[in-house]
Design the sequence.
């Protein structure tokens, strides 16, 4: 007997038929004698509709009301799944965030889970009742509904698995696992059986949209065994685990890419203390996420060229912020390039294996792809290239690191 | 300065534009210096969609899950209206039933309001904040969401007005008041300026679908001044008040009708004590509402013919129940007629004025309309007729009691 948390995303619960299908998957775990808690997303499309209504009705944004509106999507699914389970003879009930209680901080619209009261849940789970919990939401210290930000249902599931001390957290989605790269780009992309948290984190934040980054980080810090698998196909998924659970580690596990980047270069920034803080502080205040940052010293020795990347959809906002502080900071020009992409090579094996970066640069050079910015961590190398070359680069790197599998069509 | 509860129905909040329109109506009361609490229905069509999902997914019906699903419709509207109010500079927040708390009994799907904690609400209202409350729902003793049954938002509004000791409860709907009869049938139907609770109760339960019966009964018992008015037109509505607030009382205030009735006759029922109790008890257990009941003694003196009406949609269910107890109760035949309608003449004035019933019977006889069953109360006379004659009867009675106004087209 094990305790399992299952999470089903929006496409997995898109309509009544699919919710019935989800009920069957839950039943399978119950029939194995397991205790099961299920976290559900809103039916596909519902959250977008709700978000659109809130933005249509008011440009001002009271995040507390936004949360009250948007959280209903998952509430609907939780009740429907409980009904579907009861319909096939499984004892089940829905638990809203405020009933559990699943407590978050007060950052409405983007709250963090702080504590989950598990007494009631555990009692029911042990009695054999399936708990169905709306993802993406909780209750704030103001006794109002909070939401965790888009994709937050993964985080709900992992947090719940941690709080319940679950043996496994299964994330059911519309793909059957984590691949060495995007199979839409590389036909020979292979499903990864086991991947480490660190790698998954890089893959997720580098644009492999299978799991929300935050949920992976949380799984890592609480040691939650994560499994990514398909709602629709009966095939093994990908297990996200500690490094020591992976016997044979490849040097490079996967190639991630993020096509929607924009590059900003500030020319001749006055090179004095506090300048970088001023620039990136202002961008952070405007909620612009800055990613890769490179600074070059110019010939005169008094100014510097500063280059960094932001999400493409943040470019206009970033430009506005920078325009506003131009006098203050002191730079001559701002050059924005919205046609860049980030490509990353990820693998824990590269820690012990030199030459990974060299292979990357060589491979790209061989294809005539210019590298604009480089950024590295212990287990990944990322480069910024012109976005037109994205697919070419991903394919070339996938081959260069020997990741291509058999192509079955 | 007054304290007002406003309630807006589903068609009044059917889309974002209409919710903005509602916000303007709320603003008008706020601008007058009034304290305002607003009760909202789900956007038109939403509740039906949610109900359909619950019935589609499971024929078994856990009313607690049904409630969790169906209550989301009003929750969405409450958040959206709060946003719309904020957008035009009005301080407002949504209050879910469990936040208030609006406490009900545990009859999920058809709960009764038991108590409303008004401390927090009153504090905010006095501070000038508009409270937006989802209608039709509350929180049960099991800490789970309850709903009040279809049309329950009227009841929410009246209960809230009573608890808040409000000066008025304005029910905004898609008609501009209560009419002497259905204007779709009688072109000369007139809007009633003031109507008593008792009359409104008869009009509502007799098929004038402007206000939910339960909400009128509650308004009467708590002395809540009710006003029915249009969300779309700026014209005076109908005020529902105590009899002493109406200076000149007509003898007959209105003609109500209910087209969807069915008549059941049980032939030669054994005439012994407990028989009627057995029949109507069994029907009540099956949630079949029985309305008009007539019993005739037959010639033999030992059996009786029993005739009564049920809602047409309940007929099959009723027939099944009766079939099941036929042996037990002892009757020879069951004759069902699904083609009957009930027409009622309503008015508190008839208490002091004899001859109202006579006028009704004469008018119908003159038109060749056969009266099948008669039922009376202090302030109404109802007859059952063949449903084909419904419109003819309503028009003739409307004229006979001098209710016709000028026809403007």
Sequence:
């Amino acid at each position: 007997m094990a305790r399992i948390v299952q999470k089903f995303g929006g496409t997995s619960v898109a309509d009544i038929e699919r919710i019935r299908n989800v009920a069957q998957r839950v039943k399978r775990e119950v029939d194995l004698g397991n205790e099961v808690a299920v976290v559900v997303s809103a039916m596909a499309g519902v959250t977008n509709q709700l978000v659109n209504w809130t933005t249509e009705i008011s440009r001002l944004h009271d995040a507390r009301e936004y949360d009250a509106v948007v959280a209903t999507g998952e509430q609907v699914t939780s009740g429907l799944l409980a009904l579907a389970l009861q319909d096939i003879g499984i004892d089940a009930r829905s638990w809203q965030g405020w009933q559990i209680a699943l407590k978050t901080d007060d950052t409405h619209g983007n709250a963090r889970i702080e504590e989950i009261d598990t007494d009631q849940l555990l009692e029911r789970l042990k009695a054999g009742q399936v708990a169905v919990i709306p993802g993406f939401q909780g209750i704030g210290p103001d006794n109002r509904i909070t939401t965790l930000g888009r994709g937050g249902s993964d985080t709900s599931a992992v947090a719940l698995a941690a709080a319940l001390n679950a043996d496994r957290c299964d994330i059911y989605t519309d793909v059957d696992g984590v691949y060495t790269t995007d199979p839409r780009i590389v036909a020979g992309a292979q499903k990864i059986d086991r991947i480490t948290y660190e790698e998954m984190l890089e893959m997720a934040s580098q644009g492999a949209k299978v799991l929300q980054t935050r949920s992976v980080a949380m799984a890592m810090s609480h040691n939650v065994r994560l499994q990514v698998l398909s709602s629709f196909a009966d095939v093994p998924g990908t297990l996200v685990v500690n490094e020591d659970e992976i016997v044979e580690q490849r040097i490079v596990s996967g190639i991630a890419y993020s096509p929607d980047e924009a590059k900003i270069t500030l020319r001749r920034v006055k090179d004095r203390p506090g300048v970088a803080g001023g620039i990136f502080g202002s961008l952070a205040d405007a909620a612009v996420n800055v990613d890769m940052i490179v600074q070059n010293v110019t010939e005169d020795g008094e100014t510097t060229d500063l280059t960094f990347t932001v999400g493409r959809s943040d470019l206009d906002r970033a430009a506005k912020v920078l325009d506003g502080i131009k006098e203050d900071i002191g730079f001559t020009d701002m050059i924005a390039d919205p046609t860049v992409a980030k490509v990353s090579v990820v693998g824990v094996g590269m820690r012990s294996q030199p030459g990974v970066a060299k292979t990357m640069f060589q491979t790209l050079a061989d294809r005539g792809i210019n590298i604009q910015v480089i950024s590295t961590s212990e287990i990944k190398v990322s480069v910024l290239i012109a976005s037109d070359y994205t697919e070419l680069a991903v394919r070339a790197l996938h081959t260069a690191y020997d990741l291509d599998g058999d192509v079955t069509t």
Observations:
- Chain B touches chain A at residues 16, 19-20, 50, 53-54, 56-62, 64-69, 72, 75-76, 78-80, 82-84, 86-87, 93-94, 96, 98-99, 143-145 (CB under 8 Å).
